[in-house]
Structure formats: structure tokens, C-alpha cells
């Protein structure tokens, strides 16, 4: 298993554990597949769950949280939900990434940087925090993953 596949499997398992632990207190994890980062989600919507289970991360993984249909999180066709989140929360880093692995236009400073960037939204629908995509649930934040406070 590649390092990236191992990291993805561990992260997916962390999301399941977090949903199981905090779901009774009202936490709801939502997953929004996107193909704008390294073309990592090229399949059709009907292929996403089988792909998670058997390919990436594989190992029989089944999410216990809601997955939505694939869509754009950045650019001209970004989902309005993400426009709202990005306008409410500053980016977690100034670096956008390598343009040859990012597939949208126009690119903006508040854009989501990569798959698994995380937002915490309160029960009132107001965004509270935004985390860098490499921030893990169990092992503490990545060295450059200080969360940004949302307005």
C-alpha cells in the first residue's frame, strides 16, 4: 500500500470514529467528493462508494457519514455551499498549490487547497473553523495546520 493510500485509509477510519463518538452529541460529518485536485475522483457518482470500499482507501472501508454527489468546490461552477464557507472562513495557508494538479478557473485566495480540507459549522449553520487538508482527527494538527477562525 502506498503512503498516500495508507494515510487516506487512516483518515477515513478517523472520520468514521469521530462520527461514531460524537454523533450522539449532534456532530454530523458530511463528505463532498470532488475531482478538482489531481483528478483523484474521476468516477461517476455511482462508483464512489464501491471505489472507497475496494480501491481507495480500500480494505473494506464503508463510511458511516453522509456522502453527497461529486461537484466543484472551486471555480466558476463551485457549489454555493462552498462559496458560503469560503467567504466565511479565511484560508489556512497562503499557498494554493501546484497549478498542474489544480483543475479550476479562476483561482482565488480563499479557494479550498486540496481534498479533505475541513470546516466546522455550528448547529445554527454558521461556519466556526476551517482546517488545512492534512490536519488529522486523532493525531493533532499538522505543523502548518493552525485552524482559521471564521467570521
UniProtKB/TrEMBL annotation:
Domain of life of the organism encoding this protein: Eukaryota
Family: Belongs to the glutathione peroxidase family.
Coiled coil: none
Transmembrane segments: none
Pfam families: GSHPx
GO terms for MF: glutathione peroxidase activity; selenium binding
Biological processes annotated in GO: hydrogen peroxide catabolic process; response to oxidative stress
Organism: Neotoma lepida (Desert woodrat)
GO cellular component: extracellular space
PANTHER family noted in UniProt: GLUTATHIONE PEROXIDASE, GLUTATHIONE PEROXIDASE 3
UniProtKB keywords: Oxidoreductase, Peroxidase, Selenocysteine
Protein name: Glutathione peroxidase
Amino acid at each position: 500500500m502506498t503512503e498516500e493510500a495508507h494515510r487516506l485509509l487512516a483518515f477515513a477510519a478517523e472520520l468514521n470514529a469521530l462520527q461514531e463518538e460524537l454523533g450522539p452529541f449532534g456532530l454530523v460529518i458530511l463528505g463532498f467528493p470532488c475531482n478538482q485536485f489531481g483528478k483523484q475522483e474521476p468516477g461517476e457518482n455511482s462508483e464512489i462508494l464501491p471505489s472507497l470500499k475496494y480501491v481507495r482507501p480500500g480494505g473494506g472501508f464503508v463510511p458511516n457519514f453522509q456522502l453527497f454527489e461529486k461537484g466543484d468546490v472551486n471555480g466558476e461552477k463551485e457549489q454555493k455551499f462552498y462559496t458560503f464557507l469560503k467567504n466565511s472562513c479565511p484560508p489556512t495557508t497562503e499557498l494554493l498549490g501546484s497549478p498542474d494538479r489544480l483543475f479550476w478557473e479562476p483561482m482565488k485566495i480563499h479557494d479550498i487547497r486540496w481534498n479533505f480540507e475541513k470546516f466546522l459549522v455550528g448547529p445554527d449553520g454558521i461556519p466556526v473553523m476551517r482546517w488545512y487538508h492534512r490536519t488529522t482527527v486523532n493525531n493533532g494538527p499538522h505543523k502548518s495546520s493552525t485552524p482559521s477562525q471564521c467570521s
